[in-house]
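Summary for the steering committee. One of the milestones for this cycle was to obtain a three-dimensional model of the protein with iron/sulfur cluster bound, which we needed before selecting residues for the alanine scan. The sequence and ligand used are listed below.
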Amino acid sequence: MSSKAEKYMELNNHSFPKDDWYYGYYYDMKKICHNCARCGNCRWTDPYEMKEARFGKGCPTNAYHLFDGYSCQGKMDVILGVLDGRLNYDNNEKLLDVIYACDTCGACDAMCKRSRDTEPLKVFLDMRAKLVEDGQLLPQHMPIIDSMKKEDNTMMGKKADRGNWAKDLKVKDLSKETAEVCFHAGCQISFNQNLWKVGQTAIKILQKMGVDVGILDKAEACCGGKAYDMGYRGQYTTMAENNLNAWKTAKVKTVITACSDCYFAFKKLYADQGSEVQVYHLVEYIDKMIKEGKVQFTKSVPLKVCYHDPCHLGRRTDDYTPGKAISGVYDPPRNILKSIPGIEFVEMFRIKEYAWCCGSGGGVREAYPEFSQFTADERIIEAIATGAEAIVTACPWCEAQFNESVDRQNERLKVYDIIELVDQAL
Ligand code: SF4
Ligand code: SF4
């Protein structure tokens, strides 16, 4: 057989040499890369769902760099080049840049699953894990990882200050007491004083609904989701074990969070580690309570709003089944907003599995601030184009990004976490 034919057979049977690269998930990386048809669909939203060409792009890093090497397809080519030994792997700064200047938002993944039954995001995340394992670290990420290691958070805050957002609340401290439900605030709500109101309102509403709820206070640890997305799987596992042990000691059966990153970590990653704790995002829990008649809105909130789907609440939680729609928590926030009297709800151009990212994911907020800001600014421009007076989201990371973007662009658009509107309507 000619070497060309042998190569063809090798590619189609995925029978690669069994060295370190090809064991476990690294094997899958190459297989997935070979499945890439170079169709380019991962740069766009679904053409059949596209409402406006101006808002047709799907991949923030490709839109920002205007260079295909950064796109999902480009990354697949670059990674395949590395796996095949055609591109330099060691101390290649450009490789780190291509792999890390990416929101890990999964917009490409949604399109590729749809058009090609392929999961490219898995490849990027595994490549990051491989780089970290081999000590090829992005210097900009080091402060976040140090903060996680020393203070259990991603915000460079002190562990002792983690529960300050709740110091004026009467709520059970689950490092000393037990409760059925734990509200997990997450790093952004705990350390960004502008967002303390989200956690405080969540506790007030849960208590009003008669829920036996507590918080871990300063014993709460970062969910670890950001560490996972940045490739630090050992650090992720440490964080996850801290929280799982604390929940076990406090006899927690259900965890509720208002943060989409935490939700993704608990719902997808902790479950893979065998966690049986029931997980709700606050929007799911409130939607359930509305349907059970336990929450009734009595006040009008006269406001025209659009809703931003956080990536980690939507497509990043997808249980991939070929041929099926990309799953995610899309309906509960919309049901809530449509139930509030006075609210006029309008959809954005890119929604649900095709939503444009806020620009805070995957470590880019910290490592690539200009790219991160470009991503947020684009979403704010889209929100304004809907004619809405306010953009509503269900994630403190998105809210922080949007608040900064509105200030930077000197726009008058209001930014809300959905829980604030729920509070106004009760
Ligand atoms: S959509 Fe998938 S198959 Fe098409 S170019 Fe992108 S990664 Fe490759
Ligand atoms: S994860 Fe998001 S930013 Fe990264 S390549 Fe895919 S669409 Fe682009």
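Key point for the committee: The pocket of iron/sulfur cluster (ligand 1) is lined by residues 36-42, 72-73, 76, 111-112, 115-116, 118, 120 (CB under 6 Å).
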